[in-house]
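Let's study my pick:
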Amino acid sequence: MNTDAYIKPPEKIPFYIKIGLIITKRVTKKDLLAPRLLAWYPKVAISSAVLESLIAHGDKDLNERILKLVRIQASISIACSFCIDMNSFEYEKSGITKEEMKGLAGKVELEQIDSFSEKERLALGYAKLISQTPVEIPAEFIEKVKAAFTEREIVILSSTAAQVNYWARMLKSLGVPPAGFSDRCEI
């Protein structure tokens, strides 16, 4: 485990946080530094775990591909290396191509990539706007979003991008390096 963060994990971790660490390791197949650092303040460790456990995974409203695109775009937009690493992992399993990844990274203009649907383009634009500071969403853009997505879908899109932003700001503020999920990712 890379421990090059700004602080070290506490030497004593409460047993209930250790249970969370075991679950995290089982799910991610990695011994992640971030949850260990959050053990300094168990309330934030628990609330962050709850937030993470409730993420949208793709269901009847929005599919896995569009949610993965939003997570990757938010990660890139906020320039969080850990988030890019984790959210880009196995992107091809969500039907995302290398060309699309280059578009998300700004190496190719999104308009030049024919494989993105109009809904995906709107979702990507929305993720970019949510990830900027200050968050400013032009009225004409939100009208396009409202025409393409249901209210429920808009909440799912905004909460998905906001969740990435939460983690990005938390992880960057603690100096958490990438965990090695996407060593072969070409963005």
In short: The radius of gyration is 17 Å. The chain has two domains: 15-53, 64-174. The longest helix spans residues 151-174. Residues 15-53 form one domain.
